[in-house]
Amino acid sequence: LSPLQHQIMASLAEGLEHSEIAERVGFSRAYISDNVCSVAAKMGMPTTAAAVARYATYRAHVQAAELLVERGIVKVPLDPADEHVNHVVEMLAGVLRERAERLLPQ
Fold this sequence. Notes:
Radius of gyration: 17 Å
Structural class: mainly alpha
C-alpha cells in the first residue's frame, strides 16, 4: 500500500468518515472512496468494512511490535550472548511479520 493508502485506512480504522479523511489529506471524497475500494480489492476483501477490519488488525500487530521495542522488552539489535531471549524475540518477530504479511498485500 502507498503511504496515502495507509493513512486513509488508518483513519477509517479510527472511525473517520470519507469526507473527514478527504478534508484531512486534501483530496476529494470521491478520491478517498476510490482508494478505499482499490485497497479492499488489493487485499482480496469482499467489502471495504472487511478491509478496514483487517487493516486495524495489521496496525495492532505493528503497534505491539513497536511498543515491545520502545519499552526495551525487545532489544534491537538482539543481544548475541542471550540465546533464550534471542530465540523468543525471533519467534515473536516471525509471528508478527507472518501475520502482517497475511493481512496486507506486498
